[in-house]
């Protein structure tokens, strides 16, 4: 398996534009997580899905953020409109529930810069 | 809900020496798991070591070991014989949840510098 695949690796966009981050989890994994990493706040869990269903989106900062998982092999995180304070590295991770945290596989992250 | 706190933003160590990274946590769950993850400059998150809360014995993985103090809710990572390749950001994390679903909560991270 190629691991968790995120795209793009880097994204630079202008304030007000829509940004879509993409994630392909490991085949067979049933949980998917979106994290945001910044120097000030560290790694924050934004939202996670179990069997394609959103379980907890309490970490999504505001209505400008939305996430979908239309099937077991694909998820998106969308920011509309983007703001400079959204600049961060966004990670996607997937796991098998039975591995209880130790089985998380992270993607390489998307570094988002909003100017 | 759980919280994880790493009080050391930065640490440094000489090559071949030992360093300990601190972590405290809080959770209302009785069944939980604790982890240390390493993030080198490549950004990749790498699992270093895992501790099941129900186990009294401290986990060990080669040069990496933990000191798990359940009553004090403390979970420190000891790196022995430090190597240049150990330089990275280290995250302590807690997982609560059954086999249905759960989530990892991370601390703020500690940047470890290894001096030759």
Provide tags for this entry.
heterodimer, A: 115 residues, mainly beta, seven-stranded mixed sheet, four-stranded antiparallel sheet, 11 strands, B: mainly beta
Description:
The complex is a heterodimer of chains A (115) and B (116). By secondary structure, chain A is mainly β. Chain A has no helices and 11 strands. Chain A has strands at 5-7, 10-13, 19-24, 31-38, 42-50, 53-56, 65-71, 74-79, 88-95, 105-106, 110-114. In chain A, a hairpin with a 2-residue loop joins strand 5 (42-50) and strand 6 (53-56). The model of chain A has no long low-confidence stretch (mean pLDDT 92). Chain B is mostly beta strands and 116 residues long. Chain B has no helices and 12 strands. Chain B has strands at 2-5, 10-14, 19-21, 24-27, 32-39, 46-52, 60-61, 64-69, 74-79, 88-97, 102-106, 110-115. Chain B is globular, with a radius of gyration of 14 Å. The A-B interface holds A 31, 33, 35, 42-43, 45, 48, 50, 55-56, 89, 91, 93, 97-98, 100-102, 104, 106, 108-109 and B 33, 35, 42-45, 47, 50, 91, 93, 95, 97, 99-109.
Helix-strand layout with pairing:
The complex is a heterodimer of chains A (115) and B (116).
Chain A: E1 5-7, E2 10-13, E3 19-24, E4 31-38, E5 42-50, E6 53-56, E7 65-71, E8 74-79, E9 88-95, E10 105-106, E11 110-114
Parallel strand pairs in A: 2-11
Antiparallel strand pairs in A: 1-3, 3-8, 4-5, 4-9, 5-6, 7-8, 9-10, 9-11
Chain B: E1 2-5, E2 10-14, E3 19-21, E4 24-27, E5 32-39, E6 46-52, E7 60-61, E8 64-69, E9 74-79, E10 88-97, E11 102-106, E12 110-115
Parallel strand pairs in B: 2-12
Antiparallel strand pairs in B: 1-4, 3-9, 5-6, 5-10, 7-8, 8-9, 10-11, 10-12
């Amino acid at each position: 398996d190629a691991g968790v695949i995120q795209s793009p690796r880097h994204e630079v966009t202008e304030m007000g534009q829509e940004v879509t981050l993409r994630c392909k989890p490991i085949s067979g994994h049933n949980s998917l997580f979106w994290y945001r990493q910044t120097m000030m706040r560290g790694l924050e869990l934004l939202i996670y899905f179990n069997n394609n269903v959103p379980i907890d989106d309490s970490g999504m900062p505001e209505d400008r953020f939305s996430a979908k998982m239309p099937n077991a092999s694909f998820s998106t995180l969308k920011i509309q409109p983007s703001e400079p304070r959204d600049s961060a590295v966004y990670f996607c991770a997937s796991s098998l529930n039975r591995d209880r945290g130790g089985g998380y596989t992270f993607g390489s992250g998307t570094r988002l810069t909003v100017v | 809900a759980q919280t994880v706190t790493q009080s050391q933003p930065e640490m440094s160590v000489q090559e071949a020496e030992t360093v300990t990274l601190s972590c405290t946590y809080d959770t209302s769950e009785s069944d939980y798991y604790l982890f240390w993850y390493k993030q080198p400059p490549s950004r990749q998150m790498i699992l270093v070591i895992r501790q099941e809360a129900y186990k009294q014995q401290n986990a060990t993985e080669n040069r990496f070991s933990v000191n798990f103090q359940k009553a004090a809710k403390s979970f420190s990572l000891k790196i022995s014989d430090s190597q240049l390749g150990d330089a990275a950001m280290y995250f302590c994390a807690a997982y609560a949840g059954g086999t249905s679903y759960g989530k990892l909560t991370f601390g703020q991270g500690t940047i470890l510098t290894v001096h030759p």
